[in-house]
Amino acid sequence: MRLVSIKSISEGEKLGKAIYNDNGQILLHRGATLTKRVLGRLNELGIPIVYIQDERTKDIEHSDMIKEETKQKAIQTIKSEFTSIADDMRLNKTFSGEHLSKGFSQVVHAILDDLKLNKHVLSVLSDVIVYDDYVFTHSLNVTVYTLGIAIELNYNEKQMMEIGLGAILHDVGKMVVPLDVLQKPGRLSTDEFKEVQAHAQAGFDVLRKLPNIPLLAAHCAFQHHERLDGSGYPQGLTGDSIHEYAKIIAIADVFDAVTSSRVYRKPMLPHEALELLYSGVENQFDKSLVEAFRRTIAMYPVGLTVTLSDDRVGIVVKQNKELSTHPVIRVIKENGVDVDPYDIDLMDHLNITIVEIETMLAKSEL
Q1: The CATH number of the domain covering residues in 1-53
Q2: Which of 1, 137, 169, 192 has its CA 20 to 30 A from that of 357?
Q3: Which architecture does CATH list for 68-294?
Q4: Which of 49-58, 299-308, 335-344 is modeled with the greatest confidence?
Q5: Which distant-in-sequence residues (6+ apart) come within 8 Å of 222 by Cβ?
């Protein structure tokens, strides 16, 4: 299958990968015919890119970051527990958290098990999801990316559970932020921005009182918007004053935020998001942690059309975990002319690099 912009799809083409909502329900099955009406609906839902069936890439399949069963259990747990916490916060009730620790610990364990079995780099575009509530799916994605970094850094089991719980709960404070503020398409007013910023303190206040939730997890919620140069919030902490867990979650948080499709903006591609993170190295993000993340994520997602430095055009067919900037490419054009497709492993040709991605998916379009 091939990754394309819906603007470039011709009527009658077949969907290569199912589209879900964040309840795990299939909205459009693999193999569905993409009619003008369907494409219009996808555009309305804010989906800019999809996988289509393509004869030249029919053997290409994605490896999901985590199992569908794990994903759905995680989303259900996050929705249920976050909603319970939010209801009690609005009523100024004390949330007991009796089942919270067990439920989230099971989810973190399941994600870890899946990631340890997955020998591939993490692909941000392995699923196309229509979000009913972005906070829930964002919390799951941030947890997956965070644990990917933790594995790369050789954290022990205790550390991975601590940071996993911190990641999955990092945005729980947003449950008290008005939805119209969270989803506002335009620039936030000063007061609205303060409402959003308050979620870090709100999350900390809830989590630090809950039994069986590590205090470090509460500090992840408190510090994930802090930045190395002191430009973050809520305390304006700098450097080593910020816990490493929070520094890692900050990277995962920003990456998922900018690569996710929202009602008010289009997503970046992974390599663009990584460029954004690298632009903040030393001032905002720890360089060694950004580099650890780079080693865990697919820079160029499978199915993406790219141009190489020798002017050949091809489609990404496989990732190289050792060097994500140099995947395996299926060449489809040479000197502007279609050729019989053949594969080239850029790991064997380090002098050849990707210099351009398909125009339809370029940053200017997203």
Answers
A1: 3.90.105.10
A2: 137
A3: Orthogonal Bundle (1.10)
A4: 335-344
A5: 200, 201, 203, 204, 234, 246
Structure tokens at 325: 């900037």
pTM exceeds cut of 0.70: yes
Nearest Cα to Cα of residue 70 among 173, 164, 211: 164
Angle made by CA atoms 102, 104, 109, in degrees to the nearest 5: 95
Instruction: Please tell me whether residue 339 adopts helix, strand or coil conformation.
Output: strand
41, 59, 254, 279, 324 from 138: Cα distances, Å: 23, 30, 10, 23, 23
Which DSSP category does 95 fall into?
Answer: P
- Which one of the listed residues 17, 79, 174, 247 is annotated catalytic? 174
- Tokens at 351, concatenated: 């002098």
Fold (CATH) for 302-366: SH3 type barrels. (2.30.30)
Q: What's the one-letter identity of residue 341?
A: P
Residue-wise pLDDT for 68-86, tens only, equals 788 888 888 888 888 887 7
286-328 pLDDT, tens digit each? 999 999 999 888 888 888 889 999 999 999 998 887 788 899 9
